[in-house]
Amino acid sequence: MVPVKEQLDTLNAIKAYNKALKPARKAKDSLPEILTTNVATRDRWVKDYKKQKLNKERSYHAIGITDGGLPTQFN
User: Fold this and answer.
1) Cα dist. 5→32, 49, 53 in Å?
2) Which of 28, 36, 60, 75 could form a disulfide with 7 if both were Cys (CB 3.0 to 4.6 A apart)?
C-alpha cells in the first residue's frame, strides 16, 4: 500500500501537469485522477474578475493519521 504522502504528491503532480497543458491539448493529453485511500478532495470556486468566469480549484488533504503505525496481527 502506498503511503498517503506519496498519494498526495502524485495527485498534486497530476493537477500541475493538467494545468500546464495548452487548452487545445487538454482533452487528449490530460491525466485522470488516481484512486486513493484516506485522501479527501476540497473544491473551491474562485472568480476571475478579468474574464468574468468561475474556476474550480481542487485541493487534496489527508484524512486521519494513517502512516507510521506498526504492523500487528490485527492490522
Assistant:
1) 19, 34, 33
2) 36
